[in-house]
């Protein structure tokens, strides 16, 4: 939840492989403070594609090129003009 001092940031979410297929797009904008907020909004936008949320649950994320890893998405801050990369598991990797 956003506090009084938190400002919504605008950037882009890029989907790869299965995430791209389920989203039906390679990228879309975000307007959020944290990665959790951006992903919640993406799930809501793609509510008509039930596999989208399933695929997202298995993805790794990069925020501005940095791996999110096991950090809580609610504490991963987004930046103005930033990029979130959504990376599903890849075969052989």
Proportion of beta-strand residues = 25-35%
Radius of gyration: 13 Å
Number of helices: 3
Q: List the uncertain runs.
A: none
User: Largest beta sheet, briefly?
Assistant: 5 strands, mixed
Number of strands: 5
Secondary structure: helix percent:
25-40%
Mean pLDDT, rounded to whole units? 92
| Shape, per Cα inertia axes | globular
Q: Note the run of SSEs as H and E.
A: EHEHHEEE
In order across it, which strands form the biggest sheet?
A: 2-1-5-3-4
Brief characterization of the structure:
This protein has 93 residues and is an alpha+beta fold. It has 3 helices and 5 strands.
Write up what this structure looks like:
The mean pLDDT is 92. The protein has helices at 17-23, 35-45, 50-56; strands at 9-15, 27-32, 60-63, 66-67, 83-87. Strands 2-1-5-3-4 form a 5-stranded mixed sheet. The protein is globular, with a radius of gyration of 13 Å. The chain has 3 helices and 5 strands. A hairpin with a 2-residue loop joins strand 3 and strand 4 (66-67). The chain has 93 residues and is of the alpha+beta class. The longest helix has 11 residues, at 35-45. Helices cover 27% and strands 26% of the residues.
Tell me the layout of helices and strands.
Layout: E1 9-15, H1 17-23, E2 27-32, H2 35-45, H3 50-56, E3 60-63, E4 66-67, E5 83-87
Parallel strand pairs: 1-5
Antiparallel strand pairs: 1-2, 3-4, 3-5
Helix pairs in contact: 1-3
List its salient traits.
93 residues; alpha+beta; five-stranded mixed beta sheet; 3 helices
